Amino acid sequence: MTKPLLSVSNLVAGYGDIQILWGMDLEVGEGEAVCLVGSNGAGKSTLLRTLSGLLRARSGRVEFRGEDITNLPPKQILSRGIVHVPEGRRLFGPMNVVDNLLTGAYLRSDKAQIKRDLDHMLTLFPILAERRHQATVTLSGGEQQMCAIARGIMSAPKLLMIDELSLGLAPKVVDSLGAALRQIMHDGLSLLLVEQDVATAFELTSRGVVVDSGKVRISGPTADLAVNPMVQQAYMGLA
């Protein structure tokens, strides 16, 4: 049996005296797109922060490509191919679009491939090519999200983790982002998506994990979860 790309076992984490994750288990396969859905405060963002090394796990184990990476520093986790696009984008506002994208490749030394990847990002997101010399602080929210995702891809990840893809964005922009992500995933990139809009999450991914109070409550193919009465009532506003 093929080992998963990412394997999370009994992960416990929190902030100070407050425990958020209570034994999380999760797997993401090679080339797979998985979404994490749940209410605010369920632990979704905390999980991504723990996986990317921004928050230390109190116990449990994280394996990536068969290697134990639990509590490695963020730079080492990034170098292994896990990229975290955080909620709020966290771009360098005064810097222009191209310079922001190039910061994503700061651990890389393959200059020719970096140039090819930059050209690919500007082709994938044409509006960024138009805005390439603008400071990112002047971009719209959707354009900033495109820039944040493109910057993450410039790191040449094997697993891209996106926290709240559609937050505050118009449906047309979300559709454009979704189309770009499908193209990227077609090239073999794995995706772990945190998304408040459950319908969007299910549309973009093949498998879903419902998180509640720091634990996995139910998981399975998104096509099945979309017609699950509990999921429909609790997270999709359907009776």
Commentary on this structure:
It comes from Rhodopseudomonas palustris. Involved in beta-(1-->2)glucan export. Transmembrane domains (TMD) form a pore in the inner membrane and the ATP-binding domain (NBD) is responsible for energy generation. Belongs to the ABC transporter superfamily. One of its GO terms (molecular function) is branched-chain amino acid transmembrane transporter activity. Keywords: Amino-acid transport, ATP-binding, Nucleotide-binding, Transport. There is one protein chain. By secondary structure, the protein is of the alpha/beta class. The protein has 2 domains: 6-81 and 157-235, P-loop containing nucleotide triphosphate hydrolases (Rossmann fold), CATH 3.40.50.300; 94-155, no CATH class. It is 37% helix and 26% strand. It is built from 10 helices and 10 strands. It has helices at residues 44-51, 74-80, 97-103, 111-124, 126-130, 141-153, 171-186, 198-204, 222-225, 229-235, and strands at residues 6-15, 18-28, 33-37, 59-64, 67-68, 82-85, 159-163, 190-194, 207-212, 215-221. It has a 6-stranded mixed β-sheet with strand order 6-7-8-3-9-10, with helices on both faces. A 4-stranded antiparallel β-sheet has the order 2-1-4-5, with helices on one face. Strand 7, helix 7 (171-186) and strand 8 form a beta-alpha-beta unit. Helix 3 packs parallel to helix 6. The longest helix is centred in the last third of the chain and has 16 residues, at 171-186. The chain is globular and about 45 Å long. It starts with 5 loop residues before the first strand and ends with a helix.
